[in-house]
Amino acid sequence: MTRTTTTVITLVRRVLLALGLPAVLFAVWWFATAGSTDFYVPPLSTVLGRFGEVWTGERLLSDVVPSLARLAAGYLLAVVAGVGLGLVIGTSRVVRDVLEPVLELFRAIPPPVLVPVIMLFAGIGDTMKVIVIVSGCIWPILLNTVEGVRAVDEVLSDTCRSYGITGPSRLWHLTLRSASPQIITGMRQALSIAIILMVISEMFAASNGLGFTIVQFQRSFAIPEMWSGVLLLGLLGFALSLLFRFAENRVLAWYHGLRRAQRNP
Amino acid sequence: MLDVRDLQKIYTGRHRNVEALRNLTFHIGAGELVCLVGPSGCGKTTLLKCMAGLLAPTGGEVRLDGSPVTGPPPGMAVVFQEYGRSLFAWMNVRDNVALPLRRKKLGKARERELVDHALEVVGLADAHRAYPWQLSGGMQQRVAIARAVAFEPKVLLMDEPFAAVDAQTRAELEDLIRRLWRELGVTVLFVTHDIDEAVYLGQRTLILSTSPTVVQEDLTIDLPDERDQLHTRSSTRFAELRAHVYEQIQRAKHHHGDREAPPADRSENLAPQTTKS
Predict the structure, then answer these.
(1) What is the pLDDT of residues A201-227, one digit of tens each?
(2) Nearest by Cα to A163 from B201, B102, B118, B106
(3) Which residue in B76, B91, B133 is closest to A162 by CB distance?
(4) B126 within a domain of the structure (yes/no)
(5) Which residue range forms the structural domain that includes residue B223?
(6) What is the 3-state secondary structure (H, E, C) of A43-70?
(7) pLDDT of B257 higher than 70
(8) Each residue of B90-117: pLDDT tens digit?
(9) Residues A144, A87: contact at Cβ < 8 Å?
(10) Which of B82, B100, B134 sits opposite A155 (nearest CB)?
């Protein structure tokens, strides 16, 4: 057997394994609800039937895109602020000692509770929603960055010093790259938090967005449409995590290789 | 070239102070290859870090070409023992070697030339695109050596660089160091705990006492300049020198700075290696 054939077979096997359980779950959902007359649990065929007409066309632009834009803005801001603050806190012991108790306090506050508070001074527009997303998903990024920065190897740090690799060059080539596995772990956790907060912020006060639309459907007893919204959120989360995994595999290829090399020396 | 004068290092801890280096004075001339050997835990790494400007001494000073070393001097490169931790795992071999050169702003062509040459002389001409963790330990240490070579230092400090590689690789790397030293005309200080290595490699061997450390002996290695693993190591003179260093190290284990004219501010009844703060 040639190497290409082996690779193709491995790939097919992995895809089948990955898609197996979702397929089974969909089948169970499909058959369990097939003849359903329960108003609140419509057959999956009905939900899927509505899916197309609800989420394409006008609603895609008026609700899905604004939601995704808020998600992107909030998430990216959280990444920039989390990594930036994490670098400062991780590098300086004094800053860490001063900020740590305060950070623990803020981290302990569940972000949805902050929505009404943030509404008071940021209004009910996009700013509020972005702030809510940032306030919730900055924590895993920040804390993981701090840990990653603190774990920079001493020998490598001495190596940089003796070769005069300092300042921005050190920050990029040593600190950030060395902390990148932890930073990316934090970013992965933050992504799912960001999606949750995007929906929650839109449920409170909004005139468009996925969260808003799903609540509207529920209140107007458009049950299959509501279910189709839930399904869309699930698919959205899945797609984003696939995208994330893809990016991670590229950025952290060295790290996965290093780990494999350490496991089988 | 490299002067160490009255160098002292005391680590200050919460409950006790540890005097790692008592009083070290020695001189290394330009172009020399000097080995530094001593019993384990005698503060070899501390000394090397002080010389590299990575650690501030408590007393005394290190001078490179007459000017005191207060931080890592530009003309110095260090090769550490832990090759796995001194290379950038996220960069391939070539980038690892090239990174320290960027600051020198030599221009792309010159930089490429230096990197190519350095990898060539350490025998890694085929490994430019590999990542360090794809290489064996000996090859990783070669990358670290190539990085030092490309940097074109006046002084090369090596901290037990071959302690973690197997015996055969170690022999190859020892010959590589001698060859590079002769070809590049660089001054080399080679720290080791291996007596054979200390005799085989250098022109001089500094034997250190146990901590608190002083220089116990400054021994000239009068072996011929042409050395090879087989003949040099089986020569009578090698055996004599080796026996001598071995005896000195054994003596060193019971000998430390306290035996020699203790400083007036230190009382003799304290534990030899520590003073209560």
Answers:
(1) 998 878 899 999 999 999 999 999 999
(2) B102
(3) B76
(4) no
(5) 2-75+153-276
(6) CHHHHHHHHHHHHCCHHHHHHHHHHHHH
(7) no
(8) 999 999 999 999 988 889 999 999 999 9
(9) no
(10) B82
Closest-CA distance, A132 to chain B, in angstroms, reads 35
CB contact under 8 A, A161 and B72: yes
CATH of residue B25: 3.40.50.300
Q: The tokens of B4 are what?
A: 């160490």
Q: What is the pTM of this model?
A: 0.86
Contact criterion met (CB < 8 Å) for B103 and A177? no
Pick the CATH number of A64-263 from 2.60.200.20, 1.20.1740.10, 3.40.50.1450, 1.10.3720.10: 1.10.3720.10
Global ipTM: 0.85
Cross-chain residue pair A255–B54, CB shorter than 8 Å = no
A262/B contact by beta carbon, under 8 A: yes
CA distances from B82 to A121, B137, B183 (A): 54, 10, 26
Amino acid at A58: E
A140: its two tokens: 């895993």
Query: Residue A140: pLDDT band by 50, 70, 90 thresholds?
Result: very high
Cβ atoms of B23 and B60 within 8 Å: the answer is yes
- B→A contacts (Cβ < 8 Å), by residue, are 49, 52-54, 71-72, 74, 76-78, 80, 82, 85-91, 99-100, 102-103, 131, 133-134, 147, 151
Task: Give per-residue pLDDT as tens, B150-201.
Answer: 999 999 999 999 988 888 999 999 999 999 999 999 999 999 989 999 999 9
Task: Answer whether residue B127 is part of any domain.
Answer: no
Domain ranges of chain A: 64-263
Q: Which residues in chain A are contacts of B80 at CB distance < 8 A? A: 155, 158-159
Sequence-ordered list of residues with C-beta below 8 angstroms from that of B267, at least 6 positions apart, any chain: none
Domain count, chain B: 1
pLDDT for B128-150, tens place per residue? 999 999 999 999 999 999 999 99
Which range, A3-17, A29-43, B86-100, is most confident?
A: B86-100
Q: Please tell me which of the candidates B54, B134, B151 has its beta carbon nearest to residue A261.
A: B134
Distance from CA of A108 to the nearest CA of B (A): 34
